[in-house]
Amino acid sequence: MTTKATVLLGANAALAIALGIAGCSSASPLDGSNGASKDSSGGGGEDAGASTLGPTGSPSAEDAGGGGLPSSSSSSSSSSGGTASGSGDSGPAASSGEDAGISTARQAVLSFLTSTTGKASAIGVEDKDSSNPTADSDTMASMAGDGQSPSFWSADWGFGSDAVDNREGIVQEGEKQWAQGAIVQYIYHACPLTMNELCQWTDIDGSYGSLSDAQWADLTTPGGTLNKAWLARLDTIGAFFLELKTAGVAPLFRPLHEINGAWAWWQGRPGPTGSAKLYQITHDYLVNVKGLDNSVWVWNVQDYTTLASDVNVYTPGASYFDVAALDVYDTGYTSGNYQAMLGAANGKPIGVAECQFLPSTDVLSQQPKWAYVAMWPDFFSNNTTSIPALFGDSQVLTLSKMPGWTQH
Hints:
Blueprint: E1 6-7, H1 13-18, H2 61-65, H3 104-116, E2 121-126, H4 135-144, E3 152-156, H5 160-165, H6 167-180, E4 183-187, H7 201-204, H8 213-219, H9 225-246, E5 252-254, H10 275-289, E6 296-302, H11 307-313, E7 323-328, H12 335-345, E8 350-355, H13 361-366, E9 370-375, H14 386-391, E10 396-397, E11 406-407
Helix pairs in contact: 6-9, 8-9, 11-12
């Protein structure tokens, strides 16, 4: 394990060059991607100021995410989390300026994402195999050529014995990736709460893990049996997030992903007591109860035909997320989808969290505010041409162009 790191608020010359760019080249379709589904069975997973990291190394509350994440002293929370309102406006109070209790590392990531928006996009792939947590990134690097590496790394806390047994390994890899200057992210394909964490993909995908309305009410009610079970799950992954905090790492966390979907037990429940409520509970418990103020929270939807309304129906509220991310499998990189995400983010960074087809350089030219783009690893064969094109384009930040987060 690494020792606690000191965050650098200055960027190197490579990033300064990278963020002063424009241009585009080859094309790919702007619209649909054939509605492909991903297989998560393998590896337990399915404006810059004077400084390139912001005017003072810390963006305004508006630019960096409303009020960001409060410390325990800035808002109160029960162990069940906050209470949702119909408009999604309740929850932790947003402060003006820099958050009280915010971690320096987290502030650096927020500043970077804000400063790179509209200038260049980080790029990466989900590393699905937790026992070999750079296998997919290595494949992408090999396809990119010229010694280039992804600048975005992501792993899954996952399900099943392989994922559970390798959680410490992906913590250590996250620390390595952070030290190398990559953006670090974790997701969580969580087993249904009616069984333990050694479930199979088929227990998550489809109707097998669905909860009844009564069970959902129990899950979102303080003291309920399933509510306690979910908090126990958060205790488990919270211990790993604490290791990352101690090491000075500020990871993105994308829980309850594709929240507007219909294939997993946490998805597809609209309104103030639905899926957004569980997101709030998750946030409030990890931040306010467990004290994990180092994470950058990603709220994630998929590009269904209902996206324009989904971004309102499933939002947990602006104070609960720092980044709004889109998974692109269904309707594609349409102007409508892009505008829907910009509207939902309301000035915060946006990203492509998963996709079957990476956006072309032409798409990035037309939609420059994607702070990062990440591919799902089942689809390398769909991106044999786009990967080297993107890695060679000035609109894309490869690892060598990242500022570097830490020094030891």
